[in-house]
Write a structure and sequence with these properties.
It is a single chain. The protein is of the alpha/beta class. Among the domains are: 31 residues; 219 residues, no CATH class. It contains 18 helices and 7 strands. The strands form 2 sheets. Strands 5-4-3-6-7 form a 5-stranded mixed sheet. Helix 6 packs across helix 17 and helix 12 runs antiparallel to helix 13. The chain is elongated.
């Protein structure tokens, strides 16, 4: 059922529509609308006329204002043109001034550029001269204290100042000093009794006491002990055979020299480093010209001694292989004007062997104790030795000398001074302990940390100020110490390992003294025989109770 409200609404709308329809049919509604339209039209026309009047007035005012502003604009344009002209003149003046200034600036810049080029050229030349001066100064000041140059090769030796304070006392032994007296010898002839002085004979008041003053006069002389052997010759009438008694061993020629004479000449030539000519002349002078040994005989003594002592050297070779520590080093030799190499191997107990080699490197190591050694090697910074042994300790004496050289030629750097002081402190610390004594691990760790910090300081210093092209030894030393840190500090962890290779260097100096006397050798065999003889003499020095001369005499027979 439809809603009542909707029904009422529809009725209202129907009634309104009927009324509007009635008004339209009668024309009443049209008349009302027409009257309303006319009224509105008149109203709008009146408003339009009013607006047109206002528009005309506004248009007139606009024209007036426009004309006014046109006049103002013309005045402003005229003024602006005048200002533009003045500005143009000023601009042209400024452009001319700018051009003149630019020209002057360009000239100044060119002059500055020229001066800068001259300055740079001068600075470069100065730097090059300074670096050359540094290089030359480093070469001139290089000696045995800051390099590997031996002290005997230093041309200009430094005078070491005496730092001892003067006491005002006389030189020599002081009062109360016990002194050292000469050893009395056993008399070879009956004692000589000196007669009493004349004062005793003339005055009977002098009486003999129980005290006797004994003084000796020691002299030396060379006496020849010649033994002559006679052997009768017997003839067999039937066979024609001739025979005689056998002579003792060593009696072969008409004149033979026993082991004492050979040992005397051998030790003069090899142990005392005298020349063959001086050795034979000395022996001739001692015997009053009776013994004149040939140079060939003296020269052959080396080969004879080397052959007779080969077994002892082989035994020493085997013993050195069992040592936990061994020193090794090499030096330059001369054979017929050409270079060769002399190697030395030494153990802390004193055993030492010399080897002559034609070349350096692995070929030179071949056949030496180093080739077969399986222990800790102590050596200089020769990278060849790193291929042998089980561990390595570099000689810190060389490092100290190189650090001193760096300090003298790079005084503005800190790391070289600090590292030198640290190494000296570590060596002093190590020398204060016995080989069997355990060292403080915390102290060693502190040394290693300081070592690493100093390397960091060096790295930063060389990054900020690179090494000179004329002196790079300091930088190279830093890189080497950084790479081989373990081999520099091994002596702190093993109390058996020494900090330096001085043992091998002392042995090589013995050879250098011989080479300085000989200058050069005629053949490689002669220098090889010399090394064998020096090896045996070094081994014999370990046997202190036995006289070297007697031992060598027995070997020669």
């Amino acid at each position: 059922m439809p809603d009542l409200y909707d029904y009422n609404t529809l009725l209202c709308r129907l009634k309104a529509a009927q009324i509007r329809n009635k008004e339209l049919e009668s024309g009443e509604r049209y008349i009302q609308l027409k009257k309303f339209y006319e009224k509105e039209r008149k109203s709008y026309e009146s408003r339009i006329m009013k607006l047109m009047d206002e528009l005309a007035a506004a248009h007139k005012e606009t024209i007036r204002v426009r004309n006014y502003w046109f006049q103002v604009l013309e005045d402003m344009l005229k003024e602006m043109e005048d200002m533009q002209k003045r500005s143009d003149r000023k601009l042209r003046d400024m452009e001319m001034r700018a051009l003149r200034a630019e020209s002057q600036r360009d000239q100044a810049l060119d002059k500055i550029k020229e001066l800068r080029i001259q300055f740079y050229e001068t600075a470069v030349k100065l730097e090059e001269e300074q670096e050359k001066n540094l290089k030359l100064r480093a070469q001139i000041n290089r000696d045995h204290e800051n390099s590997s140059i031996p002290s005997s090769k230093v041309i200009r030796r430094k005078k070491i100042a005496n730092s001892r304070e003067k006491t005002g006392r006389k030189p020599g032994g002081q009062p109360g000093h016990p002194g050292y007296h000469r050893k009395k010898q056993k008399p070879t002839i009956p004692p000589v009794l000196l007669p009493p002085p004349e004062a005793v004979l003339e005055d009977t008041d002098f009486k003999k006491t129980s005290k006797t003053i004994v003084k000796q006069l020691v002299s030396i002389r060379m006496m020849l002990d010649v033994t002559e052997y006679h052997a009768d010759v017997y003839y067999n009438a039937k066979t024609g055979e001739r025979i005689h008694a056998a002579f003792p061993d060593g009696v072969v020629n008409e004149v033979n020299y026993d082991g004492s004479i050979r040992a005397f000449l051998f030790l003069l030539n090899h142990d005392c480093c005298t020349s063959i000519d001086k050795s034979r002349k000395f022996l001739s002078d001692l015997t009053g010209g009776k013994l004149n040994i040939s140079k060939g005989m003296i020269s052959r003594l080396s080969r004879e001694f080397a052959l007779k002592t080969e077994a002892e050297r082989r035994s020493a070779y085997a013993d050195m292989l069992l040592s936990p520590i061994m020193h090794t080093d090499c030096t330059n030799g001369r054979v017929n004007g050409r270079n060769c190499q002399i190697y030395v191997c030494a153990t802390p107990d004193g055993k030492a062997l010399y080897f002559a080699r034609k070349k350096k490197g692995h070929e030179g190591v071949r056949g030496t104790v180093t080739e077969d050694y399986q222990g800790i090697l102590v050596h200089d910074h020769d990278r060849t030795f790193y291929h042998y042994g089980t561990d390595h300790q570099e000689c810190l004496a060389h490092v100290l000398r190189y650090l001193k050289d760096s300090t003298e030629n790079e005084p503005d750097r800190r790391w070289n001074k600090e590292m030198r002081s640290l190494i000296q402190e570590m060596i002093h610390f190590r020398n204060g302990h016995q080989p069997t004594e355990e060292m403080d691990a915390q102290k060693i760790s502190g040394f290693e940390e300081r070592y690493q910090k100093i390397l960091e300081t060096a790295r930063k210093e060389y990054e900020d100020l690179p090494a000179s092209a004329y002196y790079r030894d300091g930088y190279n030393l830093f890189r080497r110490m950084e790479k081989y840190q373990q081999n520099h500090l091994l002596f702190l962890h093993d109390p058996r390992v020494p900090a330096t290779n001085n043992e091998a260097e002392r042995l090589l100096r013995k050879y250098k003294r011989k080479q300085a006397q000989a200058v050069t050798f005629r053949s490689f065999e002669s220098i090889d025989e010399l090394c064998q003889c020096m090896s045996m003499l070094a081994l014999m020095r370990l046997e202190e109770p036995e006289n070297i001369f007697d031992r060598v005499s027995k070997i020669f027979g």
